[in-house]
Amino acid sequence: MPQNIFYTVNFTIQFTSLRFCRKTLHPRKWRDYVETRISLCYNLLMFNLIWPVAVIVFSNIIYQICAKGIPEQMNTYASMTVTYAVSTVFSAIMFLVSSKGQNILQQFKLTNWATVVLGIVITGLELGFIFAYKSGWKVSTLATITNAFLAIALIFLGFFMYKEAITWTKLVGVIICLIGIWFIKR
């Protein structure tokens, strides 16, 4: 929701700027100005759509390397305790850098069930990957197979919980995922 507000405010500023310049610039310069503004808005929109995906992909690659690299002799829960301690410190630092003077305790008061359940689910996610790697799964197949099953599950979750449409292309995607899993495990 906040990003939608950002886009609306940015568009309003750009539009107001365009109306002002229309009255003051030569038609050719005005056209160049409009094209530049549209290009800037498009580039900003594309950047805001692409950078989170790039962060997810990069972080997931590093995550898989780290999960596979945890020593087999180390207790999984001890490893996760260190991991989450580092994550807590990093998150606190990022809050201080990005919060613009907000009080962290006030933010904690906004916690709902989703934040708590997310903490539990992330722990389950970690456990699953770490134990799978300790039992011998390969990096090249584990994430691919789990993500294919996840993609299939999310299509149906979107349909049942969020009333998202299941299209023929999504069903074909499910079939392709299942065929891909069959080929990977062959």
Counting DSSP H or I runs of 4 or more residues, the number of helices is: 7
User: Which class of secondary structure composition applies to the elements?
Assistant: mainly alpha
| C-alpha termini separation | 44 Å
Using only C-alpha atoms, the radius of gyration works out to: 23 Å
Q: How helix-rich are the residues, as a percent range?
A: over 70%
Q: What is the arithmetic mean of pLDDT?
A: 83
Silhouette: extended
- The protein's oligomeric status is single chain
SSE series: HHHHHHH
Number of strands: 0
Describe the largest sheet: none
User: What is the percentage of strand-forming residues?
Assistant: under 5%
The low-pLDDT segments are: 5-11
Describe the fold and architecture:
- The protein has helices spanning 2-24, 27-69, 76-98, 104-108, 113-134, 139-162, 168-185.
- It is mainly alpha-helical and 186 residues long.
- Helix 1 packs antiparallel against helix 2 and helix 6 (139-162) runs antiparallel to helix 7 (168-185).
- The radius of gyration is 23 Å and the shape is extended.
- The two termini are 44 Å apart.
- 2% of the residues are buried.
Provide a compact summary of the structure.
The protein has 186 residues and is mostly helical. The protein has helices at residues 2-24, 27-69, 76-98, 104-108, 113-134, 139-162, 168-185.
